[in-house]
């Protein structure tokens, strides 16, 4: 029996790829340093998920707490940004070592900053790196690069970082483990009668009002940041679950597809959210012109744009930019994220995908715009006149 059996079980959403965020309060020992006490069950969940053919990316706090513990007996450490950056640099190694000691697979450290996620090229590189690590059966452990971030460019907390990473890797689910069993109608530390909320359909002001401040002396977040993260993930079509990472039975139940905690629903599917964004986000100012056959294929909504159907490229755009795709009659057919810059697309006009590396000397993939990065704006055009 677990400590959270008073919270009714509910089915965990189906998933094949997830982000698991683990807070400092689950890793920091009472006397300082890091402890595997709660991390062991979480690591076992990750291993069992991998054995079932699922992929998990960890977003782990704990570096600052680990660094502070290493210096506890030798120095008084301030709380300004420079001191925190020093502690993060010192504590990264033991934090990664903890996860490696609990994993039979290799563990890779991935440090991200705000700049990595707002710069489109670096964003794509970060995504490619994480996808590459998953393809190699490596466990990525992500953290904010506190050692170089400055206040105005900090992501702020690892709850929100986890939501951003979930969208970055096209995750199906965001799991947030903390020392709180669920979202409660009121702060359970002040109101023992507060009832847990099993399901949240949407993040509203009333839901936000249920959240208190941080309950930890080592973490930077609280229930409010977890709800903010759930809102970000929901906007990308990704549901979020909040659960007690201290309770081994609760963690084990997750592996059986059962949640004792709070499920924050996403308003739509991940693909619906992505397609909506592709249709409505401002484009980079470039266009790719395609022939009638390619327009028909894209209009069906299930095809990627290949070089052979391209007639030309106009304007200016870089790899990863959102571009308009028009047919030979100048009608908008679709919008999508180009895998290649405008100069590269012009060199690939009419070519077969297998020629990309020969023409450019490298390849970002066989598709100029992949179908997952493309949203149609018109149905398929009528057949060409004989």
What do you see in this structure?
The protein is of the alpha/beta class. It has two domains: 10-273, Acetylglutamate kinase-like (Carbamate kinase, 3-Layer(aba) Sandwich), CATH 3.40.1160.10; 281-376, PUA domain (Archaeosine Trna-guanine Transglycosylase, Chain: A, domain 4, Roll). It has 13 helices and 17 strands. The strands form four sheets. It has an eight-stranded mixed β-sheet, sandwiched between helices. Helix 1 (39-51) packs parallel to helix 9 (248-255). Mean pLDDT is 86; it is low at 214-220.
By secondary-structure content and strand pairing, the structural class works out as: alpha/beta
Order of helices and strands: EEHEHHEHHEHEEEEHHEHEEHEHEEEHHE
Stretches where pLDDT is under 50 for at least 5 consecutive residues are: 214-220
Would you count the extended β strands for me? Answer: 17
Q: Percent of residues in helical segments? A: 25-40%
CATH superfamily of the largest domain: Acetylglutamate kinase-like
Summed up, the domain count is 2
Name the CATH architecture of the largest domain: 3-Layer(aba) Sandwich
Mass-distribution shape: globular
Termini separation (Å)? 73 Å
Major sheet, described briefly?
8 strands, mixed
Mean pLDDT: 86
- Structural Rg: 23 Å
Number of helices: 13
CATH class of the largest domain: Alpha Beta
Q: What portion of residues belong to β-strands?
A: 15-25%
**Numbering strands along the chain, what is their spatial order in the largest sheet?**
4-5-3-2-6-10-12-9
Which fold does the CATH topology of the largest domain refer to?
Carbamate kinase
């Amino acid at each position: 029996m677990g400590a959270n059996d008073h919270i009714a079980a509910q089915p965990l959403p189906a998933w094949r790829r997830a982000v698991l965020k683990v807070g400092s309060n689950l890793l920091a020992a009472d006397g300082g340093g890091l402890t595997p006490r709660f991390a062991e069950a979480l690591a076992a969940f990750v291993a069992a998920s991998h054995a079932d053919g699922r992929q998990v990316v960890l977003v782990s706090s704990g570096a600052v707490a680990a660094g502070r513990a290493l210096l506890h007996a030798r120095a008084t450490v301030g709380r300004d940004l420079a001191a925190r950056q020093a502690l993060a640099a010192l504590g990264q190694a033991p934090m990664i070592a903890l996860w490696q000691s609990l994993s039979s697979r290799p563990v890779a450290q991935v440090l991200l900053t705000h700049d990595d996620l707002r710069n489109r090229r670096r964003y794509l590189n970060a995504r490619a790196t994480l996808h590459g690590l998953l393809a190699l059966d490596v466990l990525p452990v992500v953290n904010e690069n506190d050692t170089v971030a400055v206040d105005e460019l900090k992501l702020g907390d690892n709850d929100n970082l986890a939501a951003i990473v979930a969208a970055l890797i096209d995750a199906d689910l965001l799991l947030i483990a903390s020392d709180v069993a669920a979202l409660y109608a009121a702060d359970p530390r002040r109101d023992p009668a507060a009832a847990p909320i099993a399901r949240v359909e949407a993040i509203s002001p009333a839901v936000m009002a249920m959240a208190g401040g941080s309950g930890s002396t080592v973490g930077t977040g609280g229930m409010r940041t977890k709800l903010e993260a759930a809102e970000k993930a929901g906007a990308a079509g990704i549901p979020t679950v909040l659960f007690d990472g201290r309770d081994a039975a609760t963690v084990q139940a997750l592996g059986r597809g059962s949640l004792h905690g709070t499920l924050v629903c996403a308003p739509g599917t991940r693909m619906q959210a992505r397609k909506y964004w592709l249709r409505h986000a401002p484009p980079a100012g470039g266009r790719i012109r395609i022939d009638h056959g390619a327009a028909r294929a894209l209009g069906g909504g299930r095809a990627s744009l290949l070089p052979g159907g391209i007639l030309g490229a106009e304007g200016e755009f870089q790899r990863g930019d959102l571009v308009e795709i028009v047919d030979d009659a100048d009608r908008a057919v679709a919008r999508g994220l180009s895998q290649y810059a405008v100069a590269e697309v012009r060199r690939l006009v009419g070519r077969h995908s297998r020629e990309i590396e020969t023409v450019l000397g490298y390849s970002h993939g066989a598709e100029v715009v992949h179908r997952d990065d493309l949203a149609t704006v018109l149905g398929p055009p009528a057949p060409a006149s004989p």
